[in-house]
Design a protein that fits this description.
The complex is a heterodimer of chains A (116) and B (167).
Chain A: H1 2-18, H2 21-31, E1 34-36, H3 37-43, H4 48-60, E2 64-69, E3 72-77, H5 79-83, H6 85-115
Antiparallel strand pairs in A: 1-3, 2-3
Chain B: E1 3-9, E2 14-21, H1 25-33, H2 35-41, E3 49-54, E4 61-67, E5 73-84, E6 88-96, E7 109-117, E8 123-130, H3 134-166
Antiparallel strand pairs in B: 1-2, 2-8, 3-4, 4-5, 5-6, 6-7, 7-8
Helix pairs in contact in B: 1-2
Chain lengths: 116, 167
């Protein structure tokens, strides 16, 4: 459905990127300052490349920025992105669109039931 | 889909959504007033809501909780500011602790719902959600973001599941 697609496109990147516990943790750690990818890699039982992939997903969703400094790649949480009022209102819209879908389902079921 | 409009005002900290429902205002009011009906739409399928107490009169209110797929419960409360059935409902929606007691540390959202009959079979339902302050909004994001995201993800999952069965 068109609206579903629209919701998907609007929030897809954000929600998908935050669906993973490692990425949420990376975001929490970088929210308090910047950390290098190698510093982050120490925190998780996975390869450097795997952590780098997680960072790339967050970067694509504009939740972190990555900057190269010498041999290090520094990751910084873009807290302002998350913190914007617009972002929360967007989230709220998704919640309400879900609720409205369910309300319509209830009313629709009723109509179908009474027609039988 | 009958969502008529969505307005987001980051300055006023409000989000307003209106929808045209195939129902009379009386019928639409019951979606809010009847706890069993409210339970069917308030929480997403992955986070179903259970209404504990419910009384839609000014000064009244209610308590509810939402259960995560892991069985974790997230408690909330409503406080009715004004109720004019079947036209208008204004309430505060907040968080509660595990025992269902109000958690006043957490920000409270003010919600205004209005029902306007278009004709004998259709009603325009408008819901306005208002956050108390930018600071509260920020705290809500920090503390409640994960829950909200889980909620949204549940919906996205449902959308994807729907696509898979229809396609």
């Amino acid at each position: 459905m068109v609206v579903d697609r629209l919701i998907d496109e609007t929030v897809d990147g954000l929600f998908r990127s935050l669906a993973d516990p490692t990425r949420r943790d990376i975001l929490r750690r970088c929210g308090r300052g910047q950390l290098s990818v190698s510093q982050l890699a120490v925190c998780y039982p996975m390869s450097f490349a795997a952590v780098q992939k997680h960072v790339a997903v967050l970067e694509k969703a504009e939740l972190v920025t990555k900057e190269r400094k010498g041999r290090e790649q520094l990751v910084r949480g873009k807290v302002e992105t998350i913190r914007t009022a617009g972002r929360l209102l967007e989230e709220l819209e998704v919640v309400w669109r879900g609720r409205i879908d369910r309300i319509e389902q209830i009313l629709g079921d009723e109509k179908r039931g009474s027609r039988k | 889909m009958t969502v008529k409009s969505v307005t987001k005002d980051p300055e006023a900290l409000t989000m307003t959504i209106s929808v045209e429902l195939d129902a009379t205002a009386e019928r639409a009011w019951q979606l809010w007033a009847d706890p069993r009906q409210l339970e069917r739409w308030w929480g997403p399928p992955t986070y179903p809501a259970t209404v504990v107490d419910h009384d839609l009169v000014a000064g009244g209110g209610g308590t509810y909780f939402m259960t995560s797929p892991e069985g974790e419960k997230f408690h909330g409360w409503w406080e009715v500011i004004s109720a004019d059935p079947p036209k208008r409902l204004e309430l505060r929606d907040g968080f509660a602790d595990d025992s269902g007691k109000r958690n006043d540390e957490m920000p409270v959202t003010v919600m205004t719902m209005t029902l306007d009959e278009i004709d004998s079979a259709r009603t325009l339902m408008t819901i306005e959600s208002r956050f108390p302050s930018k600071e509260d909004m920020e705290r809500l994001i920090e503390m409640g973001m994960e829950e909200g995201i889980k909620e949204a993800l549940g919906q996205i999952d449902a959308i994807l599941a729907g696509d898979a069965t229809s396609g």
